[in-house]
Amino acid sequence: MINNILEEILISETEIDNANKRLGQTITDDYKDKDLVLIGLLKGCIPFLSDLAKYIDLPLEMQYMIVSSYHGGTTSSELHIKYDLEIPIANRDILIVEDIVDTGQTIKTITRMLKERGARSIEVVSLLNKTVNNDLNPKYVGFNIPNKFVVGYGLDFQEKYRNLPYIGVLKKEFYDK
Ligand code: IMP
Ligand code: MG
What DSSP character marks residue 67? Predict the structure, then answer.
């Protein structure tokens, strides 16, 4: 069983689905007269973006980016684009889709970058938000969670466990090594 690496299940499949429904309806209302482009940050966004988008009743576009942050030292705000958008985004309404906002560095830097490219509006939808680590208040959040390391539903530990259908807290013995 892959889930014996978990201390507990923090958010169940049903709770995730309810959050996606709620977020999808709100986004549908908010973007009725806009030109919505979802920008998913790979790879963590995949289950969330695909489930959420089914609840958004609009002719939206999906685009993806792969970015990696250089953590450690003083360069944590530096962001490297490994895969970029296929389209210009000037005058379009951007909704960045993230699995989790932790320090908020990723979101902050990408938002600045997309602003420079002339987006008309930029908001963030994140399934999870570690509120104690940032003061960003993303517009759309599924769950505010405590400062614990979580995996599942897109979130990985060393590239594994993204396929768990729920969000779980990883046992400390795994990441303390
Ligand atoms: P930020 O730039 O500090 O907000 O980092 C966001 C990124 O860090 C997320 O997109 C995840 O890839 C990763 N991350 C932060 N916290 C966790 C966690 O608890 N589990 C798995 N990945 C995490
Ligand atoms: Mg990520």
Answer: E
- DSSP summary character for residue 8: E
The domain locations on the chain are 13-147
Q: Say if residues 113 and 122 touch (Cβ distance below 8 Å).
A: no
Q: Whose CA is nearest to atom 5 of ligand 1?
A: 102
Q: Residue 159 CA: which ligand is closest?
A: 1
Top-tier CATH class for 13-147: alpha beta
The partner residues of 38 in beta bridges, in order of sequence, read: 62, 95
Query: Which amino acid, 19?
Result: A
Q: What is the pTM of this model?
A: 0.94
Condensed to tens digits (0 to 9), the pLDDT of residues 97-136 reads 999 999 999 999 999 999 999 999 999 999 999 999 999 9
Q: For 29-70, what is each residue's pLDDT tens digit?
A: 999 999 999 999 999 999 999 999 999 999 999 999 999 876
Ligand 2 centroid–CA 67 distance in Å is 8
